[in-house]
Amino acid sequence: MHPFIELRNITKLFPGVKALSNVSFTLLSGEIHALCGENGAGKSTLIKVMTGAHARDGGEYFIDGENVNFKSTHEGIVRGVSCVYQELSIVPEQDVAKNLFIGNLPMKGSVVDYKKLYADSKEVLRELGLDVSPKTPAGSLSIGQQQMVEIGRALTRKARCIIMDEPTSSLSESETETLFRIISFLKKKNIAIVYISHKLDEVMLLSDRITVIRDGENIITVNKNEITEERLVANMIGRSLENMYNKKTVPIGGNVLEVRNLTSKGIFEDISFNVRSGEIVGFFGLIGAGRSEIMRAIFGVDKYEAGEILMNGRKLRPGSSNAAIGSGIGFCTEDRKKEGLMLQLSILINMTIVHLRQFTSLGVINRSKQRKITDRYIDDISIKTPSFHQLTGNLSGGNQQKVVVAKWLMMNPKLLIVDEPTRGIDIGSKAEIYSLLGDLAEKGVAIIVVSSEIEEVMGLSDSVITIHEGKMTAQFDMSGEPSREDILTAALGTGKA
Amino acid sequence: MKFAPDKLKTNPVTRFFRDNNSAFILILVIAAACISASPKFTRVGNIINLTQSIGTYGILAIGLTFIFLVGGIDLSLAYQVALDGTLFVIMCNSIGFFPAFLITLAIGSALGYLNGTIITRLKIPSLIGTLAVMTGLKGLVLILNHDSGGIPVEISLFGKTFSKFYNLKLFGFLTPSHIVCLVFLVAFALFLRYKRSGVNMYVVGGNPEAGLFSGINNDRLTRIAFTIGGFCASVCSMLVVMRMNTSTYNMGDNLDIIAICSVVVGGVKMQGGKGNMAMCIMGVAIIQIINNVMTKLGMRTAMQALITGIVVILVLILDKSSSHIKNQKG
Amino acid sequence: MKERNSSRRGQWFAGKENLGVIAMVIVFVVIVVSFSGAKFFTAKNITNLLRSVSVVGIMSCAVTLVMVSGNIDLSLGWMIGFCAVITGQHSGNFGEALLFAVLAGTACGALNGFLVGVLRLNAFIATLGTMYIFKGVTTLYSDGRFVTKLDPSSVLEFVGQGQILNIPTPILVFLLFAVVFWFLLKKTSFGTKVYAVGANSVSAHFSGIRCWLIVLAVYMLTGLATGMAGTVLYAKVMSVQPYSGVGLEFDVLTAVVLGGTSVTGGKGNVLGTILGVLFVGILSNGFTLIGLGSNATYITQGFILLAAMWMDVKSSGGFKS
User: Which residues in chain C are closer than 8 Å to A340, comparing Cβ atoms?
Assistant: First the structure.
């Protein structure tokens, strides 16, 4: 029997880059096949060749043993290759049923068959265990539910293979569980899954086989039980990673930030903690637990109802990001494309926008000073770019994140809040970001790291605060070497029960 | 997993009210105010007049609704109306009404198609594409109308002048613009609900990437929407010509702006993906009723403009505070 | 370090290909017009040309800022009408006329800025709404009548019809505004913030920029410039119809867009806008000189606008929202 998908020696060229060279990949019906690799390794290009979004420049593509040549993603969909995109493909104003059958509406003669549309949608929603009416506008669903709708969409198209690109990156814990349940349901229906994730624990948990891609080449394809997580990482980055976090011991000074009984009804309650200079405090909790919201309140972009925030002993005006910045708080947000960067503007502007005052006299910018300092920062934190005139939209994820960090470094922050600093960036860049944060702490900057990766929080922090459903459940001093389980239990809120 | 709030799973009637709430509140308030303010308002003759102008303006608004649905804007509509109308008069005077009628429809649709093609082929924002077309059409219209004059209609239809024909009443109240507008409303409402292209138009405006990944031909639907816009503009232009019995270089002026304001007041989203025929005609009705009442109250046109502007802005503010679906694209 | 600096020039040129098109077309039109025997290169013709674009020019420089901030202003036509009428009503005293016109313009701009910046309404529709409001106010104020005064102030006359060193004053006013707005956008931190807001207002907000304030400011500046433009408009002929600005917003939009400013924000500059303004002026002047008439200008202008946009899109690989 043929495998469902077989790619042989696929090559894809972009101007000046060989994105894929001689990559081969097979996908069997009903298997869960994880695709791993760093950012820029060529995973997305490979997927795009599979779905038909990119034409290949060399090699062969077989479906059920038949040579195919897709000219559009639609042709791919017709042959059973569907992809679940994250934010791209929900039409918010349309109802769930129309979203499920987008581009594939059931017709009776030449008119849309609404009876069948809603009946079929109900059936699909039931199969997925998604308890919403097919007439609900899709825009009012949670992110996780929207993703279910996308998976449902693949089902309505009789997909035989569903490609999931970082499906859990913005899901809460319970939503992730639901997703995993659905994945195993799909597997039972003999649908093949290509699963792409930076989260190796998920990869090890779910997959049957794993393919690693590095620099556009196929490194290995193995059965899951033939490989360990460490060897997987070594294959992905081409070397073994010793200790990514490389935690230094830094003398810790006095309180920089004091938060007292911070409350915002329904979002977080009674949050109190201190951050001292040179200290890295980790905030760990599930997505949706209220971690980012606390940070937004501290930074002044959201309002809060009760409590107070003190920077260096002085009370911070609530609801004013300007006051927060003025008192020395920097905030690297979770979503660097939407909140962190201005993608169509240059590195120069992006890096200096927060603290233009530094280069300005009487409102006029001193260009040469601005350029000199920007250049220094680009060198210091080794952002790979030909020029500070480069648009940030053209940088890789890791370099973009560095620009975001640099933009706050320029104002010499006393407190730096970093929210999910390494989401969606490759392991090499991760290590660089970690060492950057370490250096900052060494210089006496107080740092808050918000993360949903427990290794990251444990490896970086001096002290870890766990948040569950908007409440602080515990604070651990890392010098006491708390166990991973203790932290997880506190974050899941199961400790007291 | 949290469930969607209950209020979202309601029956069609409540859903209709929810989707159109600001427009509904307005229309009720205004209607009440009108009836109490001016007894002249409720006279049969006035109601016919009013609905007649709702019909004429409504047709242009219907076309605009389609353009808004796919996330476009058409700045050239005013000059499309002027060009269609001018050519219609010229052709009526030379080759007779029926050929002129058919050719004008074709020209209108072609102009719309031209807009759609320019935008989709050159991949430029519709604001700029139609600005360019507007500038070009303006030149043509001025040349055809000999700068600032107009061209009077020299023929009659079934032995009646155009303006008599425009006011012809079937069953004592149905004028041509009533009939055309009603037919258009029903036909296009059915199109939007039951034809594949109609339903897919919401995808083009709501999330074009989703369309692209689902085999929906966004460009083709955009062209169709602009073509419908051009088609409606030609029908509207002929009605305006009939009313005035002449063409003028500025016969389309303000029509497009009124149409844009009306449609937005009705709740059609300019960024695309939201709107229907009910919203469209409701918006037109609100603006026309306001104007009618103000005229009946003897208000000066200046005052009317002022109040129209305030209404548009009020509706925008109301909409902003009542929108229940967050704009996901930021 | 050296590498980075050397690539500056290339970066500057990137994304400005459409300006190349415009410059080429300008040269082409000028050559054609000159060869057809018309007297294009006479001091009189050139000053006439510049004088005719000065009003649109003054406004376009300010509107560039609005568009870079990702917004649009469709209320200009009646706003300038309002300011011109006010100038007319006070034309006996220049100081009074200018002060009231500029104040009125700035107030109109503040209303736009409040609606778009503070209430965050859709700029397109909100300014259509205010257009109606300004229309109403202007017509009420002027009673819908032609405005003129018999004994206008001599300074006002000088602003509209005088010259300094043989250069008509309206051109100098345009020049002054061009320099000021170029400086504001290119050299000041305010200008950089305008770009930031236009490119990504959420990110700008997270960088501590008060977006509402920036938007309010660019609209108020536009109102201020429109007030000045209104004064010049009146002073040029010492009379004005309240509706004489209708349609001007599209001339301004055309000039700004031709100059390479993006309608989605974050991109554009005042130098380009000046080129755009000059282009529209030269086109219509040239056409009139060779006897084609202004109506044919419109048709050509439409084509050129499309061509310029098409070049822009080709060079940048499509518009992205």
Answer: 203, 206
